[in-house]
Amino acid sequence: MTANQGDDDQAAHQFPDWRQIYYDQPVESMPWYSPALDEDLAAWLDRLRISSGRALDLGTGPGTQAIELARRGFQVTASDLSEEAVRLAAETAAAAGVVVDWRQDDLLATQLTGPFDLIFDRGCFHVLPPERRLDYLQTVANWLAPGGRLLLKCFSRAQPGEQGPHRFTPEQIRELFGKLLTVESVEETMFQGTLDPPPRALFCVMRSRQ
Fold first, then answer.
1. pLDDT in tens, 19-50
2. In angstroms, how far is CA 110 from the centroid of its own chain?
3. Could you tell me which CATH number the domain at 10-207 has?
């Protein structure tokens, strides 16, 4: 199965208006909302003892991941398609006394340039149209500093059903991202948020080939 087969019936995946949703409902009610640093990201950072560098929180949404990365010592840029999401996240960071460079940006027509030592994507890639996945890959590859890493969390094919984000197998991730990046690991895990039980997910670590 290729990266563009199996889960690519776009009609089965209905997504909200990402620009509007943060006007319409509290961030704490969103399925992906998690106030703490993602458990898999935290474990990876702790294991490798990484606590500094230039980090991008891609599709930052509520901004909780960006804030926690900044608290750990990273120089963080956080971007989202939704202007309202960025505004709310910036307010949260200011109230907490945390400095983050907040940007409203469309990653498929980005104004960001990098370079970044670390890019964290917790739920952006898996809602993209299948035909834009290679564009996404090229963009993040261009953003990464030499030796930099993309840490990606997406829905796993092990998650039942078809509604919501696209699902992926480890083989699909390796096939797609291996075109431009070195895929270091793809592990089955859970997607922390407000859903019970939490959805099945993949936590993927890719490194720049520069």
1. 677 777 888 877 778 899 999 999 999 999 99
2. 15
3. 3.40.50.150
Out of 29-38, 65-74, 151-160, pick the least confident.
Answer: 29-38
DSSP per-residue string spanning 63-114: -HHHHHHHHHT-EEEEEES-HHHHHHHHHHHHHHT---EEEE--GGG-----
Cα gap 112→157, rounded to integer Å = 31
Amino acid of residue 147: G
- Domain ranges, ordered by start, for the chain: 10-207
CA separation for the pair 155, 193 (Å, rounded)? 13
> CB under 8 Å to 24, separation ≥6 — which residues?
none
Pair 143, 210: CB distance under 8 Å: no
Q: How far apart are CA 210 and CA 205, in angstroms?
A: 16
Closest CA to 41 of 156, 205, 208: 205
